[in-house]
């Protein structure tokens, strides 16, 4: 019978990697390839999110006019005054004017941190109820409008009112957007080397933010002879979450490649939306430089919402491929690609960090996000990326030991 390659995994765990990893948090620090990959994934996800946030929603032309090329952390001004957006029913949506220091993150990273906290507290894989408990217990409702926004307030209030978490996603705002998959990379980490488990867990947990199988808009394009070609766009927020979680788990395997990671992600996407992702990834594989792909990508998705999960997956995977899985380049391509920049940099960066490890990420970038989180008054967690990586590493090992034990028991049952 074919089993998970535990001997190979144990050999990888035994291989020490040179150099320190940044902030020291304990006296018994992990020092092996698996931890390097987990820490690289954590750090790159945070870096991509932080570096891309100040130019989120900009065209690539505006980014070039303003900064030429963004390759450093910038402050992010939420200008104006506090305001409320009146709602027909329920609480008004509140937006707070505030200043974000270089290295701080935004709403997607807050959901990510809630998933991470739930995994670390449980010491392994989590259920949607575990995640709901984290939302209800760890969020300070007075901080909505800063990092966490109105869409998060709706989810929080529904669960505080007692709605089961697996029902909440159908009432959440902005279905099919990247906000669902933005929280999901830690699910890939705790299921390291098991993309199948990661995808299943992601489909379960993402119901707190989204729901499968509903049409969300229609895309009209004109053919060469002037006829309108209409395509119904379906909500694929949950499937994209599964794709990113599975791809992360694949990236943590010792023999993972750029191609195996992309294939693992694509395998989770239904046929029609998968074609959009394959088109963009195909451009990245064709030998074009990143600026050519950026222009093609922008034209392809013109007129559609910039945070559509399928678009972000397509752009993020393209940046990952263009960079050949190198974290620095993957992040910078995502940041300078235009449209929803922080999300693309998060996808490309986290996969590249998981593939190449912490050594491949500029140390000054890691130091920036490590120290910046300590001064962020709006975040749900002051845990550094190093501390998060340590906790996720231990949870990951716990799951591996469970699987190994189950394999041993099965061998005993099948023995003659």
Explain this structure to me?
- This protein has 416 residues and is mostly helical.
- The chain has a single domain, classed as Orthogonal Bundle (ADP-ribosylglycohydrolase fold).
- It has 18 helices and six strands.
- The strands form three sheets. The chain has a two-stranded antiparallel sheet.
- A hairpin with a 7-residue loop joins β2 (83-85) and β3.
- The longest helix is centred in the C-terminal third of the chain and has 30 residues, at 385-414.
- The model is unreliable at 10-25 (pLDDT under 50).
How many discrete structural domains? 1
| Low-confidence runs of at least 5 consecutive residues | 10-25
Helix/strand/pairing class, anyone? mainly alpha
For the record, give the distance between the C-alpha atoms at the N and C termini, rounded to a whole number: 14 Å
Strand order, main sheet: write it out. 1-4
Helix content, binned percent: 40-55%
DSSP strand count: 6
Number of H/I helices: 18
Main sheet record: 2 strands, antiparallel
CATH top level label: Mainly Alpha
User: CATH superfamily membership, which one?
Assistant: ADP-ribosylation/Crystallin J1
**CATH topology annotation:** ADP-ribosylglycohydrolase fold
CATH level-two architecture: Orthogonal Bundle
Characterize the overall form. Answer: globular
Average pLDDT reading: 91
Beta-sheet strand percentage? 5-15%
Which series of helices and strands comes N to C? HHHEEEEHHHHHHEEHHHHHHHHH
Rounded to the nearest angstrom, the radius of gyration is 21 Å
């Amino acid at each position: 019978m074919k089993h998970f390659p535990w001997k190979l995994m144990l050999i990888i765990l035994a291989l020490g990697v040179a150099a320190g990893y940044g902030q020291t948090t304990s006296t018994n620090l992990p020092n092996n390839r698996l931890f390097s990959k987990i820490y690289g994934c954590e750090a790159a996800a945070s870096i991509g999110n932080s570096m891309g946030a100040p130019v989120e929603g900009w065209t690539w032309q505006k980014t070039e006019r303003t900064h030429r090329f963004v390759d450093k952390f910038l402050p992010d001004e939420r200008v104006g005054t506090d305001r409320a957006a009146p709602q027909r029913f329920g609480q008004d949506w509140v937006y707070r004017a505030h200043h974000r220091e270089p290295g701080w993150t935004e709403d997607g990273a807050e959901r990510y941190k809630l998933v991470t906290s739930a995994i670390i507290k449980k010491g392994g894989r989590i259920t949607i109820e575990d995640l709901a408990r984290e939302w209800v217990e760890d969020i300070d409702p007075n901080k909505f409008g800063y990092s966490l926004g109105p869409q998060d307030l709706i989810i929080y209030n529904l669960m505080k009112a007692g709605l089961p978490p697996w029902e909440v996603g159908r009432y959440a705002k902005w279905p099919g957007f990247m906000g669902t998959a933005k929280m999901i990379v830690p699910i890939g980490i705790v299921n390291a080397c098991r993309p199948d488990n990661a995808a299943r867990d992601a489909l379960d947990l993402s119901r707190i933010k989204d729901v499968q199988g509903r049409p969300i808009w229609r895309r009209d394009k004109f053919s060469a002879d002037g006829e309108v070609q209409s395509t119904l766009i379906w909500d694929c927020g949950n499937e994209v979450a599964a794709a990113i979680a599975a791809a992360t788990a694949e990236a943590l395997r010792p023999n993972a490649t750029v191609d195996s990671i992309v294939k693992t992600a694509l395998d989770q996407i239904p046929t029609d939306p998968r074609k959009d992702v394959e088109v963009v990834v195909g451009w990245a594989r064709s030998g074009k430089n990143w600026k050519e792909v950026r222009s093609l990508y922008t034209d392809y998705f013109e007129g559609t919402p910039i945070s559509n999960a399928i678009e972000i997956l397509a752009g993020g995977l393209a940046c990952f491929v263009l960079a050949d899985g190198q974290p620095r380049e993957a992040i910078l391509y995502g940041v300078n690609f235009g449209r929803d920049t922080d999300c693309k940099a998060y996808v490309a960066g986290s996969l590249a960090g998981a593939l190449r490890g912490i050594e491949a990420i500029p140390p000054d970038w890691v130091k920036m996000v490590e120290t910046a989180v300590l001064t962020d008054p709006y975040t749900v967690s002051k845990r550094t990326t190093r501390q998060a990586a340590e906790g996720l590493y231990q949870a990951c090992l716990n799951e591996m030991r469970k699987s190994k034990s189950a394999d041993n028991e099965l061998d005993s049952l099948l023995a003659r």
